[in-house]
Specification:
Largest sheet: 4 strands, antiparallel
Helix content: 10-25%
Order of helices and strands: EEEHEEE
Radius of gyration: 25 Å
Strand content: 25-35%
Distance between the termini: 86 Å
Number of helices: 1
Length: about 100
C-alpha cells in the first residue's frame, strides 16, 4: 500500500492519497482500505505543522478501496484548522490620588 500526504494551506486541507496494487490472480491476498485504516495511517505517520491542528475527515466517510477493482486509489480529505494566537490585553492601572485637603 502506497500513501502520500499533501497539505493545502490555502483551503486548510490535508489530502491523504492511498493507492493499493490491483489483484491479478485469485491466489493473491485481497486487501480493503476503509476510513479506520486511513485514520491509523494518519495517526502513525503524520504530524501537523505547528501553525495548524488536524481536524476530522470531511470527505465521504463510507468510501473504501478494494484491490479487486481496476481503480485502486482514493483520496480522503481532513480539515487543518489554524491555531489562533491569544491576544494579550493591556491592563490599565489608575494613579492613586491623595484624599487630603
Amino acid at each position: 500500500m502506497n500513501f502520500k500526504f499533501e497539505e493545502d494551506f490555502e483551503n486548510n486541507l490535508l489530502l491523504v492519497h492511498v493507492d493499493i496494487p490491483t489483484r491479478k490472480k485469485l491466489n493473491e491476498a485481497r486487501k480493503k482500505v476503509i476510513l479506520r485504516d486511513v485514520l491509523k495511517l494518519v495517526e502513525e505517520n503524520y504530524t501537523s505543522p505547528p501553525t495548524h491542528v488536524l481536524g476530522g475527515c470531511i470527505s465521504n466517510i463510507s468510501m473504501k478501496l478494494d484491490n479487486r477493482t481496476i481503480d485502486c486509489s482514493g483520496t480522503w480529505k481532513f480539515m487543518l484548522t489554524p491555531k489562533v494566537k491569544k491576544s494579550v490585553k493591556k491592563v490599565v492601572t489608575t494613579k492613586k490620588r491623595s484624599r487630603k485637603k
